[in-house]
Amino acid sequence: MIAILDPALFAVRGDVRVGELDAINLMCRRDGLRIPRLSEYWDPLWTEFGRPFEQSLPAQAKHALQQLRANGSDDGDIPAFDDAKVWRRGFSQMFGSLHSDWMKRMALAIARAASTEQPVVLLTRKVVGRNTQLRVAGGTTLEEITRWVVYVQPKRVGPKSVPCVHHPRNLIHRWTTRLDWRLPAREDSARYPFCPPLQWSIHTTQVCRTVESKPAWVDCQGNGWARPNIAGGVGNHWDVFIRVPTLEQRIGLSQINVVEFGSPEGRVGDIHHVPADKKPYLKDVGWSCP
Q: Is this structure's pTM higher than 0.85?
């Protein structure tokens, strides 16, 4: 799988966490991502963004960035791309705020990679106002992803969709490119998995809405998954509002707390905790995706 680096990864900022860079290096090692040094964008990427970004980093983060650059591989086996104009979609949203050349550079680089038989992903980060927006209500916040795929059509090749990957889990469960990677999946052997809408990748498919006055991810049955009302969105679980009457009868409650993926508190997809006054009514039988 070929990966292209988003310049936004190297935006100088005060909240850089080494984990953001380590996650990309992990994907290269564990998932076999290949980052070719495509001439269409590689040198300007490191000159305009990589160098000032590196100068702003502490020592440990500099090492992770240097490792990322070292992961770059030769691009000689990827045929040159001589089409000066490429049909594209989503590039204005992702790169329009950068120097005017960057939409063209990224389109040519991604189109060149996509003209091979290998799958291609764009390694990016979530930035509010660029590819995410915040939905805040009921004391909770949901970070809605507004751009999870870009499209190109290389010469003599049909349209190609390129997922925007911001977390290693995106490579395992593609629906997490649009929805939250912390949602428990069926493949996690979750007792209460999040079952994504069947057409989650289509822009017109509603994947989040207000449930019980809270912004929530909506599963294929219409149940709402909201962050707990805890400062900073922490809590290691999801507040799940059951909207299907038959399912509510099976579980015994209309709202349960389910352990999120990555939580140190319990097994992913299990019941996280039950308020004392609700314990007599809970039938912990779980559910499966349709």
A: yes
Contact 130, 93 (CB under 8 A): yes
User: What is the radius of gyration, based on Cα positions, of the chain?
Assistant: 21
Cα separation of 234 and 264, whole Å?
A: 12
Q: How many CB atoms sit inside 10 A of residue 69's CB?
A: 15
Sign of the CA dihedral with 119 first, then 217, 147, and 49 last: negative
Q: Kindly report the CA angle at 73 between 70 and 77, in degrees rounded to 5?
A: 175
Region at 23 (left for phi over 0; alpha for psi -120 to 50; beta for the rest): alpha
pLDDT tens-digit readout, 24-73: 999 999 998 999 999 999 999 999 999 999 999 988 889 999 999 999 99
**Residue 275 amino acid letter:** P
Tell me whether strands 120-123 and 2-5 are parallel, antiparallel or unpaired.
parallel
